[in-house]
Amino acid sequence: MPGAELVGVQKTVSLVLKAKALDNRLPDPILGDKYAEQAMRRLDPDYDNRRFGTSQMGLAVVVRTKTHDDWARSFLADHPDAVVLHLGCGLDARVYRIDPPATVDWYDLDYPSVIELRQRLLPPRAHYTLIGSSVTDLTWLDRIPRGRPVLMIAEGLVPYLTETDVRRLLTSVVDAFPAGQIQFDTVAVWAWRASKWFPTLRKYDTRFHCGFNDPAALADWHPRLEYVDEAPMNDSPVLMAKAPANTRRMFRLLNLLPGMKRSTRIVRFRF
Ligand SMILES: C[S@@+](CC[C@H](N)C(=O)[O-])C[C@H]1O[C@@H](n2cnc3c(N)ncnc32)[C@H](O)[C@@H]1O
Fold first, then answer.
1. Which residues are listed as membrane-spanning (predicted)?
2. Which of 48, 64, 86, 222 is the least buried, fewest Cβ under 10 Å from its Cβ?
3. Total domains in the fold of the chain
4. What's the CA-to-centroid distance between 127 and ligand 1, angstroms?
5. What is the pLDDT of residues 77-110, one digit of tens each?
6. Model-level pTM?
7. Biggest distance spanned by C-alpha atoms of the chain
8. Ligand 1 in contact with 12 (CB < 6 A)?
9. Is residue 225, in this structure, part of any structural domain at all?
10. Cβ of 13: how many Cβ atoms within 10 Å?
11. What residue ranges in 22-179 does DSSP mark as E strands?
């Protein structure tokens, strides 16, 4: 099967891809990502015959994806000359969903093996560059044009990095560009600590390496960085409006547990 060569954290791409593909089967999807379904069919030829059950707990991830898309669209509408750094892109089809104008230069970065798989599943396009590198080896930044506004998107990536690496990444991006928006998601400290017991992460032999109870405070890492806002995930109105009834009930129950509603925080900064 294509993708069998992925190891550890790289395998988490399949979790989020499946969530997006199943969303696309809903009568009124949250994201409506046809590319995710197409990629799932290529990766798993039996995808259409599989029984996935009616519960869709992965929809919280789809809400996260939609939030990042909405924030990116609004930044690009105001900054049509921007450079986009989509870090830890996995197999996400954001560049195709957003379809930015030719004035935007878009960079998708992930480990080389993930990028190779991406190239087999998703088509090339103009003003779009793939970078196969660890995000923590910051030499990739030398390949990005400077002097333009930057949009940095890191969806489902930051928890897999150490706090030291997140800090180096954020401060290096702010130092490299005149202005921009940085959007990502983090997990709470309890979720970071407990992640070594999470069955889905154990299955892929990975875990989280950082967590923040107050992600807004990360703005203190750089004098030019300013916290903007946070979007809901596990209790988001779109999830409660569009998820199947049994999934909504599960989230309502889960959200009664302390710390659950804010176990993942989707946050936006500007500079
Ligand atoms: C949970 S997946 C999210 C993928 C994608 N952002 C999405 O939302 O569909 C995490 C991704 O981060 C990538 N990743 C983790 N650590 C990385 C690193 N140090 N450098 C580059 N990519 C990394 C993994 O390979 C994987 O593609």
1. none
2. 48
3. 1
4. 22
5. 999 999 999 999 999 999 999 999 999 999 999 9
6. 0.96
7. 53
8. yes
9. yes
10. 25
11. 83-87, 105-110, 128-132, 150-154
The alpha carbon dihedral of 8, 13, 14, 19 has a sign of positive
Task: Tell me which of 54 and 131 has the higher pLDDT.
Answer: 131
What average pLDDT does the structure give for the chain? 95
Closest listed residue to residue 155, CA positions, set 237, 91, 248: 91
**Would you say the CB of residue 156 lies under 6 angstroms from ligand 1?**
yes
**Cα 88 to averaged position of ligand 1 atoms, centre (Å):** 4
Amino acid occupying residue 73: R
Q: Where in the sequence is the domain holding 155, given as residue range(s)?
A: 8-270
Is the Cβ–Cβ distance between 91 and 121 less than 8 Å?
yes
Can you give the CATH number for the domain in which 266 is found? 3.40.50.150
| Residue range 220-238, pLDDT digits in tens | 999 999 999 999 999 999 9
Establish whether residue 255 lines the binding site of ligand 1, counting it when its CB lies within 6 angstroms of any ligand atom: no
Is 38 inside any structural domain? yes
